[in-house]
Specification:
This protein is an alpha+beta fold. 27% of the residues lie in helices and 28% in strands. The strands form six sheets. Strands 3, 4, 6 and 7 form a four-stranded antiparallel β-sheet that branches. α3 packs antiparallel against α4.
Length: 260
Amino acid sequence: MEEKEGNRMIIIKTEEQIQKMKEAGRLLAGLHKEIAKMIKPGISTMEIDRFVEEYLEERGAYPEQKGYQGYKYATCASINDEVCHGFPREEKLKDGDIVTIDMVVNLDGWLADSAWTYPVGNISDETQRLLDVTKKSLYLGIEQAKIGNRLGDIGHAIQSYVESQGFSVVRDFVGHGIGRNIHEDPQVLHFGTPGRGQRLMEGMVITIEPMVNAGAYGVKIDDNAWTARTVDGSLSAQYEHTIAITKDGPIILTDQDEID
């Protein structure tokens, strides 16, 4: 079913389709929990990328972003000042680094998307605060993902909290609808004005994925035309879930807490 809002076509999912996406999300959440065990000084993001591809293949799933617009890897792996779309590489992670692993899982044609920022070894108290604030902002945004609210309510909840903590929200990259395609309408901004934007409807499935910088919110793109990094070299963190809008409130389809 499709709902038209302005020039946007929102694809509404049935309960059965949301359940299929939840199965993809459960696989992705389990994968993140396995990655959490692997992250330590001396491992490379290329090793993690190879593990992800093998893990999904063994379970009849596929890393959807591999091949997307020419992207070559199963994951995006963004280290320290890299905001998003970092390429996996053989360079070893070091004590004190942070790394964001972002993945889209395709299971039986339905997708789930989740990113998580991991500390590598021992990180500073201020770096830990960046991670904590970013993660909390995600869940504050999710709380607003209710039928009848608007996208601006999500963005405002994230932005107001992040900025109150002295950090900044990236403007150049946004969340999105998701289903059989990685990027569907609507766009989900992580900043904005409450009461403005697309009204949330039952059956919408979206990603909420704030990227939070320790310094300025601006980004610049590397020569590889993919990787974004902070303009001032400050650290950046990101947490992302895939969310279904239901009559019972928002359901996190990529919830790691549901994995044993």
